């Protein structure tokens, strides 16, 4: 007779058995998917950046990136907005002059090193944009945090985008201040940086000489706020129109429903752990492409974790406002699709016809999110929009409702684990009976 305690033990063993195979196979896939977002290039290619003229009559805004990279939209969206106004000298800066990986494998060659910027300005910038960086809190980011402290001491207005507030907080630059961050990490930051008054439910917080924003695309609102302060509300409104950003408010930060993890967000676990044949999307780099157009492709597909992206091209290219990007491959080998950000025509690559998501008017991310829903599933597109902090209530997302194939793989692995455990139970019982019959 099976005792209640033994029955409970068997249930526990069966539950663990159902988890073992999915965890054993899924965990390495999850780690691989996450680490690939900012994986550095390994070929040593490092072309020079395009020269940028400096106008001493204009304020200077810089977007800083660390040696280990940054989130692509956190970096490129503020850059394009500031450059679009024509009111600023705008540079990207980094500790050293080599390509740095932005989310999804887009390699940016910074315009200037910290030392080079000092040669141009002879002091601090007027505005410093701080995107989320993958090594926040680690020793590798210290050159950035030390430089930020010097910029702040020199009077720079600091704009942190998304988890760039973690970079500022780790440098002590938010102590005693009010700030915000991405909904996925604000609780963690609150525990780690208790001297900061962390605020939820807003797209940005203006705390004088520090402006911080919530997740990824909330950085657009924070950048427009900076433009308001330094170039006027009309310049900010015009920049919002130029990029087709629908959420600009002259009267302060728009309220933001504070996101929380929900059961439907489990879609990201299926896409990382059990999507064993993630499609490879080649992203063709072309001269003159908009910075937000690039960001929309690399960040939407990258943050979904349902596909891989790789920058394709014949050599370094310059974006619409003069940034230098370097492709990682010049062939279509191993690619499933070829996406061309912007509207520049391109020849087929290895028989793949180029796809142009930005031929549809509107904000750059709209058509890419719609493509993600159509080619993966709606749940994945909704998760990605949630991570991007981009409302999609008015955006038609059509496609499969859920990653059913990945879900089936999980259930199959769990079933195999349970069957193995049941087989082990049966074997133990048979051996016990054999011993009792002798």
From TrEMBL:
<dbReference type="Pfam" id="PF01965">
    <property type="entry name" value="DJ-1_PfpI"/>
</dbReference>
<keyword id="KW-1133">Transmembrane helix</keyword>
<keyword id="KW-0812">Transmembrane</keyword>
<protein>
    <submittedName>
        <fullName>DJ-1/PfpI family protein</fullName>
    </submittedName>
</protein>
<feature type="transmembrane region" description="Helical">
    <location>
        <begin position="410"/>
        <end position="428"/>
    </location>
</feature>
<keyword id="KW-0472">Membrane</keyword>
<dbReference type="InterPro" id="IPR052158">
    <property type="entry name" value="INH-QAR"/>
</dbReference>
<dbReference type="InterPro" id="IPR029062">
    <property type="entry name" value="Class_I_gatase-like"/>
</dbReference>
<feature type="domain" description="DJ-1/PfpI">
    <location>
        <begin position="62"/>
        <end position="227"/>
    </location>
</feature>
<dbReference type="InterPro" id="IPR002818">
    <property type="entry name" value="DJ-1/PfpI"/>
</dbReference>
């Amino acid at each position: 007779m099976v005792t209640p305690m033994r029955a409970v033990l068997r249930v526990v063993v069966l539950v663990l058995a159902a988890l073992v195979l999915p965890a054993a196979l899924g965990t390495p896939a999850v780690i691989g998917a996450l680490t690939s977002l900012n994986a550095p290039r390994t070929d040593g290619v490092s072309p020079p950046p395009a020269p940028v003229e400096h106008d001493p009559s204009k304020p200077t805004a810089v977007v800083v990136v660390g040696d280990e990279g940054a989130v692509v939209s956190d970096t490129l969206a503020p850059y394009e907005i500031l450059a679009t106004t024509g009111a600023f000298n705008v540079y990207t800066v980094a500790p050293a002059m080599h390509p740095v990986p932005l989310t999804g494998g887009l390699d940016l060659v910074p315009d200037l090193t910290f030392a080079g910027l000092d040669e141009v300005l002879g002091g601090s910038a007027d505005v410093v944009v701080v995107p989320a960086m993958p090594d926040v809190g680690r020793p590798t980011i210290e050159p950035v945090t030390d430089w930020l402290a010097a910029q702040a001491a020199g009077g720079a207005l600091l704009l942190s985008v998304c988890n760039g507030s973690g970079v500022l907080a780790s440098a002590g630059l938010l102590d005693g201040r009010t700030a915000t961050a991405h909904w996925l990490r604000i609780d963690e930051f609150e525990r780690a940086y208790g001297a900061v008054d962390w605020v939820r439910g807003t797209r940005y917080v203006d705390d004088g000489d520090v402006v911080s924003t919530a997740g990824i695309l909330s950085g657009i609102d924070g950048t427009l706020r900076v433009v308001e302060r330094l170039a006027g509300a009309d310049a900010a409104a015009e920049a919002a129109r130029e990029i087709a950003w629908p959420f600009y408010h002259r009267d302060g930060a728009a309220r933001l429903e504070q996101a929380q993890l929900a059961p439907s967000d489990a879609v990201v676990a299926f896409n990382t752990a059990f999507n064993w044949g993630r499609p490879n999307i080649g992203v063709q780099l072309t001269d003159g492409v908009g910075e937000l157009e690039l960001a929309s492709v690399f960040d939407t597909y990258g943050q979904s974790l349902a596909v891989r992206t790789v920058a394709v091209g014949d050599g370094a290219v310059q974006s619409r406002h003069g940034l230098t990007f370097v492709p990682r491959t010049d062939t279509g080998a191993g690619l499933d699709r070829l996406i061309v950000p912007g509207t520049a025509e391109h020849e087929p690559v290895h028989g793949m016809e180029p796809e142009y998501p930005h031929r549809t008017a509107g904000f750059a991310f709209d058509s890419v999110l719609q493509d993600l829903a159509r080619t993966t599933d709606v749940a994945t597109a909704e998760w990605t929009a949630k991570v991007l902090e981009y409302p999609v209530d008015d955006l038609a997302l059509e496609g499969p409702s859920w990653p059913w194939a990945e879900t089936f793989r999980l259930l199959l692995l769990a079933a195999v684990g349970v069957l193995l455990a049941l087989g082990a139970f049966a074997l133990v019982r048979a051996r016990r009976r054999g011993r009792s019959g002798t």
